[in-house]
Amino acid sequence: METILIGIAGGSGSGKTTLADKLVECFGSDEVSIIRHDNYYKRHDDIPFEERTKLNYDHPDAFDTELLCEHIRMLKAQHAIEMPVYDYSQHNRSDQFIVVHPAPVLILEGIMIFAEESLCSLMDIKVFVDTDADVRILRRILRDVKERGRSLDSVISQYLTTVKPMHEQFVEPSKRRADVIIPDGGHNRVALEMLIQRVRSQLAKYREEF
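-> structure tokens emitted (210 positions)
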């Protein structure tokens, strides 16, 4: 069975998660499985909480890329994986995991996924969600304060010290590796429909093999 991997990248708050979730919602978890890059932040049990809050989480080195690549290869080989779960309030990986099952279509979404050649080499389609910086920072503030237990001051400080400069150094240049660039992510109905048609085509091929 051929499995395709769709990579969806973009800056923080760009709408890439919304786009990925709408694809899963359209086809269901039996046909589309999703992998979250954020869940593969490295574990830092040896570092106190106060020190963990100061780490740069917007650099490619913050992620366990080796484990992620291994998990993608396992899914493509039709083996389930135990995806880590990241606790944003603790700035560390939790002890929980999510079982992700093989599917005809895999979606990997995350900020830095195009910055790593080892990840790009596993992708069949690379989609970059391009959204204005002012929209992204407003979305990030709302998300991190309401959903991730962060203070407004900490979100703004992190954005200015690491998110913005790392976006300019790694995320924006990685856009050159994209096959498709989509303005405004899941809110772009035309682009979403194009992706839906591509997924439908892949699922039709999958069904023909059985």
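Helices lie at 16-27, 49-52, 65-76, 117-120, 133-147, 152-174, 189-208.
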